[in-house]
Design brief:
The relative contact order is 0.16. This protein has 7 helices and 12 strands. The protein is α/β, with parallel strands linked by helices. Helix 1 links the parallel strand 1 and strand 2. It has one domain: Rossmann fold (3-Layer(aba) Sandwich). The radius of gyration is 17 Å and the shape is globular.
């Protein structure tokens, strides 16, 4: 009997914020990947709600700003239905914030400013991290961050990580949902597209692109290795 091809849908808000290091692991598992530009889509989207794995990517807008970006209301409702059905869902940065909003948590601008660059994460204080999350907590590993918003932790969620600036960096819901403010998926080469796409924000906040590039050269190789372990362990856990 032929093995059924698994379907992964990627909710994309910007073309250059893509799966990057996650894509090879999905392809190794013979996933068929469909990337959907949700900014111009009409909801509900069957692929988003019915796929085996939904990955909600990042973007530079707020999950609370549906007045300016009306598609957000439909996207949040779609994620809400998916999570209610306990279907595997991953949210990164804005994707994590949209998941939090879909689950009823408050999402809002962080009071301590933007967190942009390479910073370590620490395990949450509440309980030991699950084994599949431990590769991202390796000593001296730095994760890439690019966000200014944060969210309240949900009742019943497993708090996974924090940083010095923001306590709520990652949470899981049982064995089907994972939300992360940081970006374990990025690679040094892939970030070159970010420096162009987010040039205005970097200029406005006086963040030197050279420093980000130098930091990526130093920290991205270790992240790539850790992320490869993490993606494998996490996908084994949820699927």
């Amino acid at each position: 009997m032929p093995v059924r091809t698994l379907q992964a849908a990627v909710s994309s808000h910007l073309p250059f914020e893509d799966l990057d290091s996650l894509e090879p692991e999905l392809l190794r598992r013979r996933f068929a990947i469909e990337t959907i530009d949700v900014t111009t889509a009409r909801f509900p989207i069957p692929a988003v709600e019915g796929c085996d794995l939904l990955v909600v990517m990042g973007g530079p807008i707020g999950a609370y700003d549906s007045a300016n970006y009306p598609f957000l209301a439909g996207e949040i409702e779609s994620i809400q239905r998916r999570l209610a059905a306990r279907k595997p869902t991953l949210g990164i940065c804005l994707g994590a914030q949209l998941m939090a909003a879909a689950l009823g948590a408050r999402v809002y601008p962080g009071e301590r400013g933007s967190e942009i660059g390479w910073f370590p994460i620490q395990p949450a204080d509440s309980e030991p991290p699950p084994d599949w999350f431990r590769p991202l907590l390796t000593a001296d590993l730095r994760l890439f961050h690019w966000h200014g918003d944060t969210f309240d932790l949900l009742h019943g969620a497993t708090h996974l990580a924090r940083t010095e600036l923001y306590a709520n960096q990652a949470f899981a819901i049982e064995d089907y949902a994972l939300a992360m403010q940081f970006h374990p998926e990025v690679t040094g080469l892939g970030l070159e597209r970010w420096y162009v796409g987010h040039a205005c924000e970097l200029h406005q906040k006086a963040i030197p692109i050279k420093q980000l590039r130098d930091d990526a050269h130093e920290y991205a190789p270790a992240l790539l290795n850790a992320a490869a372990q993490f993606w494998k362990l996490w996908l084994d856990y949820i699927l």
